[in-house]
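ESCALATION

Customer reports they have been waiting on this structure for their group meeting. Please prioritize. Original submission:
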Amino acid sequence: MQREQASGAKPTKVTPAATAPPGISGPDPFGIHVPKSVLDDLALRLRDTRWSRGTADDGWRFGTSASYLRELVTHWLNRYDWRAHEAALNLLPQFEADVDGARLHFVHVQKAARRPPLLLLHGWPDGFYRFHKVIPRLAKKFEIVVPSLPGFGFTGFVRHPSPDQPNRQSARLLWRLMTDVLGHRRFGVAGGDGGSALAQLIAIDHPESVVGIHLTDLGWHVAGAERSKLSPAERRYLEAGEKRFMADGAYAMLQSTRPRSLAPALNDSPVALAAWILDRFHAWSESFEDTFTKDELLTNIMIYWITQTIGSSMDNYRAEAVSPSLSVADRVDVPVGLALFPYDIGGIPPRVFAERTLNVQRWTEMPRGGHFAAWEEPRLYARDVAAFFAGLAGDHEP
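Update from on-call: job pushed to the front of the queue and completed.
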C-alpha cells in the first residue's frame, strides 16, 4: 500500500498539535494502492480452491453456507472489481501518524466545525469500513476520525510493551492520536464490539478528555458480575447469553485459546478467510443477504486479505482471556449513550445491568438491526449518535 496520497483522494487540511510531543509524528496523507501482483496471486488462489468434499449443504446451521460461499467466490473472481472499490475508499481523506512506535491509519473528515470531534471505533471482524455509510451523515455535524484499530487493516500489527494488555495500550494510542496528533483537548467516542471496550477504557483512563461515549453494547466484562447480587431479569439475561455462547461461541473459544493454529490457514486461503468472516456476519445480523451486498462483504474481506491482519486482529481474544483489560469493578463516569439493536450478539440487556458499570444518560432500544449497526442501519445509528452528543452540555472546544 502506498504511503502517499492516492490518485482521486481529496487532500484535507489537518491541524496537528502546535508542538509534537515525544513519540509523535505526522499526520501524513495516505492512499490505498494494492500492487497488481497481490491481486493476481489472489485470483490464482481463488481459481485453485480445493473445495471440501462430502459436505452436505445444511444452510448456515453449522457454519458458512457452502452454496453461498461458492456463489461469493464466483462473484469474487468474475464480477468484483477491487480497483473500483479501492478508488471509492480513496475518496475518504486518509492519513497515518506515528504514535509511540505504532503507525496508525485513520480517516479524518473535517467538513463541519461543530464540536465535539467524534472518534468512531470498529470491532471484529470488520474495520474502518464499518462506518462507510455513516461518515457522510455524521460529517454534516461533526469532525470525524475513524482509525483502523491496532492489529487491523492499514494500521496492522502493533508491538505493545505488554502483549497481554493490548486493549489498554491501544486505548492510549487512540487517545494520543486525538490529543497529541490532532490537537483536541476534548472529544467524543462511539464504538461497538471491541470499539465499545476501547471507548470505555479511554473514558476511564482519560475522563478529562472525553465528553461522552456512545456504545452499541456493554462490553464483555459485565458477564463477570456476581450473580447473587443481580435481579432476576439480569440473571435471566446472563443465562440466555451463556446458552447462546454454547451454541455459537466456538469462534471465540478458538480465538481465545488457539489463535496461532487458526491464523495461518486464514492468512493463506482467501476462501477460508471469507468463510470465517461470513459466518459471523450471518450470525450477528438481522437479515444477512438483504443487508450486505456481495461487493460490500468482499471489500471488508479484501482489507483483511491485502493487509494480512486476520491473525493480529484475533489476538485481542487471546490477550483478553489471559488478562482482561476491564472488570465489573471498572466504572465509566462520563455520560454514556446506548443504542441497542435487537439482533446484536447479546440482545438487549436490562437497563439496570448497564447502569452497574456505565453512567447511562441516553437509552435507545432500536426496532431492528444487529451487531454491525452503523453498516446495517446507518440512518438509525447516525441519528442516535448525533442526538446523544448534541445533547451533552459542557465545554466541547478542541
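Sent to customer with the following note: The mean pLDDT is 91.
Escalation resolved.
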